[in-house]
């Protein structure tokens, strides 16, 4: 019993128990499948009796194999190698472990499921118990050979097998769930099988590898896996703090990026050094088109945007002033391509109602008072802090009209139409009297200062612009970056982009040329 005082004995025992538990997971899966054939009140009993008998048989097999490996008299002797019965057992066992681990690793790496549909439906209690014992004997062969390859003392092997079986009985469900959730642990233990199998083969061929080297490599690998599990746990913990919508959006965007990179790798294949590169364009159905990516990104990021980034700003609102005469109002309605107008008294903040241009023109022809006619359709006013997702419900109640955006002081900030929401998702749709917000030039972009930052980021394929929620437009970003209103000709640098002010007034930025460094 002096070997119990050696640290290597306890290290071998602990490692062997861990390996026996992991290698017995497949046994537990088959036991659970067979137990389902019985009534619920007999399943636990069958599992305990079956695994108990299987443990006795394991110990018997372990003693038998341990006795065989003591036979060191050579039975094969030639000029290439000398093999005894023990060497043959180690050689066959090592090759078996290498084969088993290789097959299992292949299935894990290829993400193939274990086929469990071939089990027969045994309804009898003892028939199920016998099946559990037989299956355990078959699937525990690798665990028994592993035990022989890990340590030299039969008592240590038996203690490890007994402890592993007890642990599996007490925590079979929890262990199965843990392995299913942490496939890297399975891969790590299968790698240990490869190492132990190679050690058995080399020992059979008289190339001895000290057990201490194996323990050190296994211990170091387990330590690395512990760090990996801690890092994974902390990552999942940090991810859980994010809203579910944000996590789903980030996952889908990462999927689109991987799909894009995958198609690039497929399309660009160099045959050899002397041949030209052959470009094979992927099928349109196999990848996201640019317009689809833009719209998907717009949908996923809509909830994270502000109302200010979606609305038509106050400076671009065309409104009808009731203090003007009817001829001026008629001329304004005919010259402007919009179909809906806010009607105000003297200033934009004094909104009376929302009218359709066609209906207001008919009312003017009938000499109906503009103020009285407009007040029949009161405006829908929303705060500029409203969630964009809730905005969709408000727009539905507006029944094809638009809503007015106001701040906490009652000052009109802008208006939002269903088209504005569509542009936030699918990109800009300029009116007949508008020029596009972004014009692509040869090596730069000519952009209006009022351009929405989210749309600009998507077109520039970057995440470097939106850092604060206070800025909804390019002009607001440049003013915040510069600390004051920039002057024409001034250049502002933000990360990998340069922003050259082409046109600006005393109170706003009108036009900017963007170049990438």
From TrEMBL:
Annotated CDD domains: CBS_pair_CorC_HlyC_assoc
Family designation: Belongs to the UPF0053 family.
An annotated Gene Ontology molecular function: flavin adenine dinucleotide binding
InterPro entries: CBS_dom (IPR000644), CBS_dom_sf (IPR046342), FAD-bd_PCMH-like_sf (IPR036318), FAD-bd_PCMH_sub2 (IPR016169), Integral_membrane_TerC (IPR005496), Ion_transp-like_CBS (IPR044751), Transptr-assoc_dom (IPR005170)
Protein name: TerC family protein
Organism phylogeny: Bacteria, Pseudomonadati, Pseudomonadota, Gammaproteobacteria, Enterobacterales
Compartment annotation: Cell membrane
Membrane topology type: Multi-pass membrane protein
Pfam families xrefs: CorC_HlyC, TerC
Species in which this protein is naturally found: Buchnera aphidicola (Aphis gossypii)
Primary location class: membrane
Domain of life: Bacteria
Cellular component aspect of the GO annotation: plasma membrane
Entry keyword set: CBS domain, Cell membrane, Membrane, Repeat, Transmembrane, Transmembrane helix
């Amino acid at each position: 019993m002096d070997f119990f005082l050696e640290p290597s004995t306890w290290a071998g025992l602990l490692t062997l128990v861990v390996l026996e538990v992991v290698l017995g997971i497949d046994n537990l899966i088959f036991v659970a499948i067979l137990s389902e054939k019985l009534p619920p009140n007999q399943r636990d009993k069958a599992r305990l009796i079956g695994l108990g008998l299987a443990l006795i048989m394991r110990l018997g097999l372990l003693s038998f194999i341990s006795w065989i490996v003591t036979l060191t008299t050579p039975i094969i002797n030639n000029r290439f190698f000398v093999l005894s019965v023990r060497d043959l057992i180690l050689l066959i066992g090592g090759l078996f472990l290498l084969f088993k681990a290789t097959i299992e690793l292949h299935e894990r790496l290829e993400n193939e499921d274990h086929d469990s549909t071939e089990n027969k439906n045994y309804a009898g209690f003892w028939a199920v118990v016998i099946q559990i014992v037989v299956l355990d004997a078959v699937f525990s062969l690798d665990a028994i050979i592993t035990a022989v390859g890990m340590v030299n003392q039969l008592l240590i092997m038996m203690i490890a097998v007994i402890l592993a079986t007890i642990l599996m009985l007490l925590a079979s469900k929890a262990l199965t769930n843990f392995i299913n959730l942490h496939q890297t642990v399975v891969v790590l233990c299968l790698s240990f099988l490869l190492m132990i199998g190679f050690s058995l083969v080399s020992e059979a061929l008289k190339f001895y590898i000290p057990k201490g080297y194996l323990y050190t490599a296994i211990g170091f690998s387990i330590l690395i896996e512990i760090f990996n599990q801690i890092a994974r746990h902390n990552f999942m913990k940090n991810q859980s703090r994010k809203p579910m919508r944000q996590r789903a959006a980030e996952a889908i965007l990462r999927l689109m990026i991987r799909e894009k990179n995958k198609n690039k790798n497929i399309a660009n294949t160099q045959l050899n050094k002397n041949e030209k590169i052959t470009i094979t364009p992927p099928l349109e159905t196999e990848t996201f088109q640019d317009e689809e990516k833009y719209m998907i990104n717009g949908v996923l990021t809509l909830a994270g945007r502000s109302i200010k980034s979606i609305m038509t700003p106050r400076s671009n609102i065309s409104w009808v002033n009731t203090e003007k005469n009817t001829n001026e109002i008629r001329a304004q309605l005919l010259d402007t391509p919009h179909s809906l107008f806010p009607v105000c008294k003297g200033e934009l903040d004094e909104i009376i109602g929302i009218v359709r241009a066609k209906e207001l023109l008919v009312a003017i022809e009938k000499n109906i008072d503009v103020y009285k006619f407009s007040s029949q359709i009161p405006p829908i006013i929303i705060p500029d802090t409203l969630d964009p997702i809730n905005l969709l419900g408000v727009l539905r109640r507006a029944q094809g009209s638009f809503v007015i955006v106001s701040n906490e002081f009652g000052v009109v900030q802008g208006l939002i139409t269903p088209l504005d929401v569509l542009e936030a998702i699918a990109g800009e749709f300029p009116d007949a009297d508008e020029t596009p917000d972004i014009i692509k030039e040869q090596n730069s972009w000519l952009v209006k200062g009022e351009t929405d930052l989210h749309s600009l980021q998507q077109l520039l394929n970057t995440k470097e612009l939106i850092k604060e929620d206070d800025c909804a437009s390019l002009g607001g970003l440049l003013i915040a970056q510069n600390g004051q209103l920039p002057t024409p000709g001034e250049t502002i640098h933000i990360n990998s982009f340069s922003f050259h002010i082409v046109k600006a007034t005393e109170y706003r930025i009108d036009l900017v040329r963007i170049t990438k460094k």
